[in-house]
Specification:
Layout (H helix, E strand, L loop, with lengths): L1 E5 L3 H13 L3 E5 L2 H8 L6 E5 L1 E2 L2 E2 L1 H10 L5 E5 L4 H10 L3 E4 L4 H11 L9 E4 L2 E4 L4 E4 L2 E3 L3 H12 L7 H9 L9 H13 L8 E4 L3 E4 L2
Parallel strand pairs: 1-2, 1-3, 3-6, 6-7
Antiparallel strand pairs: 4-5, 8-9, 9-10, 10-11, 12-13
Helix pairs in contact: 2-3, 6-7, 6-8
Length: 221
């Protein structure tokens, strides 16, 4: 899952980012309203975590921009402002949830799961042919046989399956699974696709993950 975190406090941003990445999510971060607007203008996110008090303005402008672009994208407001009026105001603006600082990461993680439970883009169970991925229990199976996947392989397969039939470039995959600004050897995607193929493919059959020469990869729909 791809997450946008809009938070200007480095300590809090680091705490949340480390927790989400440990769960296998790709995380992009913005410290200002301007940075957030730039990111949401160029990328679709599965969930947005939004602080309200930002150095160059109020987070509500980001919320409005997200809602104008995508009425369904889950937005969870993170704020030290915890009055009922504050919560009602933001929910009326289109926020899906409101979490008052300070909070435990376990609660944030649960709120994210709840917010992304609905809608095809964030469907809990993905199925392509006899390949099945349960994003809540983090169990992958093919033909009913369970396949153990470390977090990064799971995130890669989830991204490919959510876009089944669509050709995804290596850069798109890096941005979605490893995050913007990730510095890596150019073959990191190829290496991880190789890991998945060794676990998913069957002898004598075409690979579940197709290489589209000169373009990238796709899961066969």
């Amino acid at each position: 899952m791809r997450v946008l975190l809009v938070e200007d406090e480095d300590r809090i941003a680091s705490f949340i980012t480390k927790g989400l990445r440990a769960e296998g999510h790709a995380v992009d971060t913005a410290k200002t309203v301007a940075e957030a607007h730039a990111l949401i203008g160029n990328q679709q996110y599965d969930v947005v975590l939004l602080d309200l008090r930002l150095p160059d303005g109020h987070g509500v402008s980001v919320l409005r921009a997200i809602r104008a672009r995508d009425p369904e994208s889950p937005v969870i407001v993170l704020s030290a402002l915890g009055s009922t009026d504050d919560k009602v105001s933001l929910l009326d603006e289109g926020a899906d949830d409101y979490l008052v600082k300070p909070f435990e990461f376990a609660e944030l993680s649960a709120r994210i799961r709840a917010a992304t439970r609905h809608g095809q883009r964030s469907a809990r169970v993905l199925e392509v042919g006899d390949l099945r991925l349960d994003t809540k229990t983090r169990v992958a199976t093919r033909g009913g046989v369970s396949i153990e996947l470390p977090s990064r392989e799971f995130a890669l397969l989830e991204y490919l399956m959510r876009h089944a039939g669509q050709v995804l470039t290596r850069q798109q995959i890096i941005d979605a699974v490893w995050g913007f600004g990730f510095e890596s050897a150019s073959n990191v995607v190829d290496v991880y696709v190789g890991y998945l193929r060794r676990k998913l493919d069957r002898p004598g059959e075409a690979s579940v993950i197709e290489t589209v020469r000169g373009a990238g990869y796709r899961v066969r729909a």
